[in-house]
Design goal:
heterodimer; A: alpha+beta; two-stranded antiparallel sheet; 27% helix; B: mainly beta; 8-stranded mixed sheet; globular
């Protein structure tokens, strides 16, 4: 076990050095542990040690992307990233996932969805991104969406 | 090969001492795989070893290389097809050595990961994931190009 951990940390260090520190992809994930967990995330350059119970739900978001060069010009380096519009919802039952939804648009698609939200008929967008739908009954009663089972 | 792996209580990439079921969901296929004993995974994004029990649910695009729907007594491999989402429950010892995580776990864990989107890509994606009711899973993505890469 100790040897495995040493190998793991050494590998993580090498991966981090070779791969750089900044994420270049957007992703979401969750992790639940009951027991012992020691790990590092090369993409986030962080590590953790869990003894007991832990649950994490996270999104890794890139801060920059390669800039698109002008036609006939050399690459100009990095630009701010990224336009995105996202709704996600996670429900758990005990220690396991019961329900997860993700609606996400990035780049030009996100800009178009955002513009369409201003339209009088924005139903198609709201059907796709259901967190934009008004839920008066839930808001009025102040229900905490499944009373603690919803994150 | 699957029989030899089964005798030795091993599986590699979901084949061997394992069982799988492939079902059709809305817009995708769902592959649910159970492994027992030593299970090795070699894909760069998911490499690792599990000693004990694991249950993996992978939502994969309906590509030409995707397995057919049905039950597989010695498991089924989805190597070469990158899931759009996956949930893995492990009981036992797990060692991860992949691009996302390097580490060890002893006990029970559940991991869920959704396929990453490159920083400069323009897509719209919707996913409804119900691990305990795989037939209710929904997936759609526009554009669909690149899903089977």
């Amino acid at each position: 076990m100790r040897l495995a951990l040493c190998v793991a940390f050494l590998s993580a260090g090498i991966v981090t050095i070779l791969g750089g520190c900044e994420a270049n992809q957007l992703y979401m994930g969750s992790k639940t542990v009951v027991g012992v967990n020691a790990a590092v995330s090369p993409e986030q350059t962080k590590g953790w040690l869990v003894v007991g119970y832990d649950r994490t739900f996270a999104a890794v978001i890139p801060r920059s992307a390669d800039a698109e060069p002008e036609p006939g010009q050399p690459p100009t380096g990095k630009q701010d990233a990224m336009t995105s519009l996202a709704c996600s919802r996670l429900m758990v039952n005990g220690i396991t996932i019961k329900y997860f939804t993700e609606s996400i648009a990035t780049g030009e698609a996100a800009r178009r969805f955002a513009e369409a939200l201003k339209d009088a008929d924005s139903k198609p967008v709201k059907d796709f991104f259901d967190c934009f739908k008004r839920k008066p009954e839930a808001a009025a009663s102040g229900q905490a969406q499944a009373a603690g089972a919803d994150r | 090969m699957a029989a030899a792996l089964t005798v030795s209580a091993c599986s590699i990439n979901g084949m061997g001492f394992a069982s799988s079921e492939v079902i059709e969901a809305q817009g995708a296929l769902v592959v649910s795989t159970e492994t027992y004993g030593v299970a090795l995974r070699s894909a760069a994004y998911d490499a690792g070893v599990t000693i004990g029990y694991s249950w993996t649910l992978a939502v994969i695009p309906d590509c030409a290389a995707a397995p057919r729907t049905g039950k597989y007594n010695f498991g089924v491999s989805i190597a070469g097809i990158r899931p759009v989402a996956s949930v893995r429950r492990i009981g036992g010892l797990a060692l991860d050595m992949n691009r996302r995580t390097v580490g060890a776990m002893l006990g029970f864990s559940e991991d869920m990961i959704v396929r990453a989107i490159p920083a400069n890509e323009s897509i719209a994606r919707r996913l409804v994931l119900t691990p305990d009711e795989p037939s209710k899973i929904e997936f759609s993505q526009t554009p669909e190009q690149g899903l089977c890469d």
